[in-house]
Amino acid sequence: MIAPLDRGIYLASRSPRRRELLAQIGVRYHLLLFRERPESGLEVNEEPLAGEAPDAYVQRVARAKAETGWRRMQQRNLPHAPVLAADTTVALEGRIFGKPADRKEAASVLAALSGRSHQVLTAVALQNGDRLDSTLSRSEVRFKELSAREIEDYVATGEADDKAGSYAIQGRAARFVAELRGSYSGVMGLPLFETAELLRAAGLDPLTNLRARR
């Protein structure tokens, strides 16, 4: 039997940032992308449920992505390996800010975050056979006061288009961040400490497997 990390894990995400972060800690992975067929509908419901708290929401979505990825692996008759998925959301006073529908909404979100502290929640889930485990990273980010011109110029770059909370901390929005408490990689979209611990608990520690191959 091939050891799981000899083949790697599946990453059920289209995010290039998550790929880079996984590679940073030495995790071998294969992309497991969901097919986007309009007639098939959404594979994972990413709309918040009525009264759903931000932490419950982000964990539900991450776990659903991992479960869906596992089913897709089986349906496509791919070699079995653990499936890792993640989801990130921004929350302010219990309100969930996901990816903006358009640039007008992105500007509105940034205006709401201006001069205030908000939470960035990233949940990571790992489906491995019948076992589904997950973990949650919480970070607090405080923005400086943003002028209307700063918001307009930033939104015009297109960087906010597909980002939870309408900004990318690893991009131009870094200059907006007055204070960060928590996980920088978690704000990017994949908390490395929590992810490594989740893999280690499943017997998939990349450093241990690296030593074993030497």
Helix proportion: 25-40%
Coarse shape = elongated
Give average pLDDT, whole number: 90
List segments where confidence is low: pLDDT < 50 over at least 5 consecutive residues: 1-5, 37-41, 210-214
Percent range for β-strand residues: 15-25%
* Gyration radius over CA: 18 Å
Please report the distance between the alpha carbons of the first and last residues. 18 Å
Break the fold down into its secondary structure elements and pairings.
Layout: H1 4-7, E1 9-11, H2 16-24, E2 29-31, H3 54-75, E3 83-92, E4 95-97, H4 103-113, E5 117-128, E6 131-143, H5 148-156, E7 177-181, H6 184-188, H7 192-201, H8 206-213
Parallel strand pairs: 1-2, 1-3
Antiparallel strand pairs: 3-4, 3-5, 5-6, 6-7
Helix pairs in contact: 4-5
Folded structure, characterized:
The chain contains 8 helices and 7 strands. It has about 210 residues and is of the alpha/beta class. Strands 1, 2, 3, 4, 5, 6 and 7 form a 7-stranded mixed sheet that branches. Helix 4 crosses helix 5.
Give short descriptive properties of this protein.
214 residues, alpha/beta, 23% strand, elongated
Question: In brief, what are we looking at here?
Answer:
This protein is α/β, with parallel strands linked by helices and about 210 residues long. The protein has helices spanning about 5, 15-25, 55-75, 105-115, 150-155, 185-190, 190-200, 205-214, and strands at about 10, 30, 85-90, 95, 115-130, 130-145, 175-180.
